[in-house]
């Protein structure tokens, strides 16, 4: 197998068939301990075929077919190779047996499934459906449909024909130049801690496999140049980033690693490396050590490769599974650093005291030869970057413009709804799932092989981890026990990314007068009862109660975006005052249970930055609301409900808004909402909140659509009616006072 790194950008959106492609070898190939294919050997080939999603009408998935044709060792001549792509390292894409790379179907991810469930659950009300759609889409996006392979992408190639090699290449320069240095450093390494532990409860975990000699800033520059990303701190915000990455099936290169201590000390730095997924990644933790060697500080580190996600059936939680051969990851780290030009030498020291078959805190086996790699760093002032395209690489537009991507995602969403959101497909899929669950495997089963579950296109191994115990829930990488957001000596952070809240209170109306619809009746009888008379119908909404749910994205330091749904119970009275006819003169009151259901988007402006516990704010934004009587309910289109449900939602809402509100319909209208409130983080995860908001909107006209029906009902005869003047006393001012609680990510 050849491990290579692209030196150019390739994309199913912008790359064309026939484009030359190039890469370098990033792991030397050895035969009998001798290097025959060294680092930086050049590979060249052709992009044979491109499958593009485009605007979403043609295909739902993208594909790329790379054909590799030659390899050239440093100072040598090009040699023909017969090699196919077998894997994209740390990627969500798959590769078939012919070496063709296949992208994901964006609408098959958990984010689309969650969005569909949320919209279906909110189908009782068009406003709640708008909120569910907006909140789910803003919190969990549809992933990129095209395949994007930037410069620095790592691939594995499988040779399908022998490759003649004749030249032997030297090993990297040693970090320890003489036996006395070996003896001196062995004396330093012997008492160093070699096993990390979890925080609480304490379990032994990863093994230390590397020791760096050099300055910390040089080490950090080298890893950054090699394509590794510094990991975010483990807190509520990064936990949401992990959740979002898993649900959306998108990458989170700065994803946090769990806190593992070495001799009771936290890491000085943590790094990880992945392409476009959180399921697979390389990651390491670097720890500062006391003492120096040759006048330079010492840093030790662990290094493991997360190969997938597992379900721990004993502790009922998700865990990262790791490749047990940790020496292979040790070699990868060394090769990556050598390619940056920041390493002056590499040596290995034996450690017979290190266990060769240990297990980490989540029960994964760790296989090693026990040696520690000694990496001597230089100043790393001008490192060679892995993500910089070669000078001769063709320019490629990797993504479609934003407007095109939005349109494409909408088409893919509607296409998926049409093809898979109907009752026929749902019945087929459900039947197929039941058959597969009941189907027994053919032939004998291997009890040592874990059960694999496929959830939203991703595979999860069901494993048993009897050696570890931890709290339920949450995604944790190998070596993680109970999450700790507040370690001794570490400042607690309250920075958040996404907030969900539920609140309740009372609502009132700031109007002293509402609207009046005058009707002019004419009784075809002789005086004193005959002739025209007036009926003034005074409409008035009264104080009630409300319950609200909000989804808030803390997008910037001082500004947040809030989507909200509010249900307001507001009694309606219609007072009829008749004048001009002694037979009918007087007043009467009719009581109704009224409702105001609102979907809102507000911009929240905070005087305190994200991360503070107490965050007051002022808010302003548009409001879209449905005013109706409680016994008025939207009808369901019987055909569209079982075929294209999203189109059915739009049709049902239109039909409901077209009906007179006093005859089972509703009033849709927009307005402006503004207000103020605060959020207080009780813990990094939970908060309390309170606010006041006022909505300005037009006065609801309860009568306008009913007047033609009223004239038709009475018609010509003894009693006729004609619409009189309509009087509106300014805009409707709905005021809402509420308090509640929420959860932060």
UniProtKB/TrEMBL annotation:
UniProt xrefs under InterPro entries: LssY-like-C_dom, OMP/PagP_B-barrel
Keyword Metal-binding among record annotations: no
Keywords: Plasmid
The protein, known as: LssY-like C-terminal domain-containing protein
SUPFAM superfamilies: OMPA-like
Protein source organism: Acidisarcina polymorpha
Record domain LssY-like C-terminal: where: 197-371
Source domain of life: Bacteria
């Amino acid at each position: 197998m050849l491990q290579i790194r692209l030196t150019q950008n390739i994309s199913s959106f912008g790359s064309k068939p026939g484009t030359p492609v190039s890469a370098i070898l990033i792991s030397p190939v050895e035969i009998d301990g001798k290097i025959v294919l060294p680092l930086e050997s050049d590979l060249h080939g052709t992009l044979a075929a491109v499958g593009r999603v485009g605007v979403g009408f043609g295909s739902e998935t993208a594909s790329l077919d790379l054909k590799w044709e030659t390899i050239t060792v440093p100072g040598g001549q090009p040699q023909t190779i017969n090699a196919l792509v077998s894997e994209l390292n740390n990627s969500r894409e798959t590769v078939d047996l012919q070496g063709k790379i296949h992208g994901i179907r964006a609408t098959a991810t958990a984010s689309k499934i969650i969005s569909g469930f949320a919209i279906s659950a909110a189908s009782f009300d068009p406003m709640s459906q708008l909120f569910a759609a907006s909140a789910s889409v803003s919190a969990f996006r549809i992933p990129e449909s095209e395949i994007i392979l930037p410069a620095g992408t790592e691939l594995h190639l499988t040779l399908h024909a022998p490759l003649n090699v004749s030249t032997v290449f030297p090993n990297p320069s040693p970090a320890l130049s003489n036996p006395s240095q070996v003896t001196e450093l062995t004396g330093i390494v012997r008492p160093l801690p070699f096993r990390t532990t979890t925080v609480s409860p304490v379990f032994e975990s990863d093994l230390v496999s590397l020791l760096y000699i050099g300055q910390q800033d040089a080490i950090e520059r080298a890893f950054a140049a090699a394509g590794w990303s510094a990991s975010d701190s483990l807190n509520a915000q990064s936990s949401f980033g992990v959740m979002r990455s898993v649900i959306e099936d998108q990458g989170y290169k700065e994803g946090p690693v769990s806190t593992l201590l070495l001799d009771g000390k936290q890491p000085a730095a943590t790094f990880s490396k992945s392409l476009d997924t959180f399921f697979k990644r390389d990651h390491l933790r670097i720890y500062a050590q006391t003492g120096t060697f040759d006048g330079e500080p010492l840093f030790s580190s662990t290094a493991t490769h997360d190969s997938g996600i597992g379900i721990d059936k004993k502790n009922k939680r998700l865990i990262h599974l790791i490749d047990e051969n940790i020496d292979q990851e040790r070699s990868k780290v060394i090769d990556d650093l050598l390619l940056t030009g920041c390493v002056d030498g590499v040596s290995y020291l034996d450690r017979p005291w290190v266990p060769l078959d240990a297990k980490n805190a989540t029960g994964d086996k760790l296989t090693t030869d026990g040696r520690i790699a000694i990496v001597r760093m230089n100043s790393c002032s001008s490192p060679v970057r892995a993500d910089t395209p070669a000078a001769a690489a063709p320019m490629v537009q990797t993504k479609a413009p934003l407007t095109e991507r939005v349109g494409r995602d909408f088409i893919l969403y509607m296409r998926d709804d049409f093809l898979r959101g109907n009752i026929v497909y749902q019945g087929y899929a459900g039947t197929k799932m039941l058959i597969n669950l009941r189907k027994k495997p053919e032939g004998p089963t291997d009890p040592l092989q874990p059960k694999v579950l496929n959830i939203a296109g991703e595979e999860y191994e069901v494993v048993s981890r009897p050696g570890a115990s931890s709290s339920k829930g949450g995604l944790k990488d190998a070596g993680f026990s109970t999450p700790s957001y507040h370690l001794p000596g570490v400042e607690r952070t309250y920075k958040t990314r996404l907030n969900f809240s539920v609140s309740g209170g009372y609502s009132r109306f700031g109007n002293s007068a509402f609207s009046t619809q005058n009707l002019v009746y004419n009784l075809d009888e002789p005086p004193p009862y005959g002739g025209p008379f007036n009926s003034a119908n005074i409409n008035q909404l009264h104080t009630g109660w409300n319950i609200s749910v909000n989804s808030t994205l803390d997008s910037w330091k001082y500004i947040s975006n809030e989507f909200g749904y509010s249900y307001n119970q507001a009694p309606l009275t219609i007072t009829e005052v008749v004048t001009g006819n002694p037979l009918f003169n007087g007043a009467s009151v009719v009581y109704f249970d009224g409702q105001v259901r609102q979907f809102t988007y507000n911009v929240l402006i905070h005087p305190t930055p994200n991360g503070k516990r107490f965050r007051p704010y002022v808010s302003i934004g548009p409001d879209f609301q449905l005013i109706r009587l409680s016994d008025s309910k939207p009808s369901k289109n019987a055909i569209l409900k079982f075929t294209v449900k999203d189109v059915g939602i739009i049709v049902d809402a239109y039909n409901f808004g077209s009906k007179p509100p006093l005859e089972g319909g509703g009033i849709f209208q927009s307005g402006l909402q503004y207000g103020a409130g605060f959020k207080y983080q009780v813990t990094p995860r939970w908060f309390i909140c309170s606010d006041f908001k006022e909505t300005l909107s037009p006065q609801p006209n309860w009568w306008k659509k009913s007047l033609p029906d009223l004239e038709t009902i009475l018609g010509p005869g003894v009693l006729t009616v004609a619409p009189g003047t309509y009087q509106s006393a300014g805009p409707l001012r709905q005021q809402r006072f509420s308090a509640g609680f929420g959860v932060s990510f």
